[in-house]
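Q: what sequence does this backbone want?
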């Protein structure tokens, strides 16, 4: 019988958590990096950085929620409600990453307003 030790030393890296939140702004620069880069950071670092699993899930859920809001908001433009939903999504996408980056820097947990939990 072989005993395998899977104990991995977790390190605390608040700067990486802050960067993970701020990489969501790549959507505004490149058009697509705001979901891909945090997803890669979360998948590669969730087992080695304290809090990365919680913050990564929050970021991915937030990005998926924004995508859903836009998908629903564009056809809803025909009925007049779409503009409200698109403005709501735009304001959230500008404010919430900064708020949660500051929280991550202070060692607090993430809290994204208007997020649907796709990944729990």
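A:
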């Amino acid at each position: 019988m072989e005993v395998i030790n899977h104990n991995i030393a977790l390190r605390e890296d608040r700067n990486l958590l802050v960067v993970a939140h701020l990489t969501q702004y790549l959507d505004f620069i490149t058009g697509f990096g705001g979901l891909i880069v945090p997803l890669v950071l979360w998948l590669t670092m969730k087992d080695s950085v304290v809090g990365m699993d919680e913050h990564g899930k929050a970021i991915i859920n937030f990005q998926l929620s924004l995508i859903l809001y836009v998908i629903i908001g564009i056809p809803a433009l025909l009925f007049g409600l779409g503009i409200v939903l698109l403005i709501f999504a735009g304001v959230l996408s500008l404010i919430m990453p900064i708020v949660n980056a500051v929280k991550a820097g202070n060692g607090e947990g993430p809290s994204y307003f208007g997020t649907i939990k796709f990944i729990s």
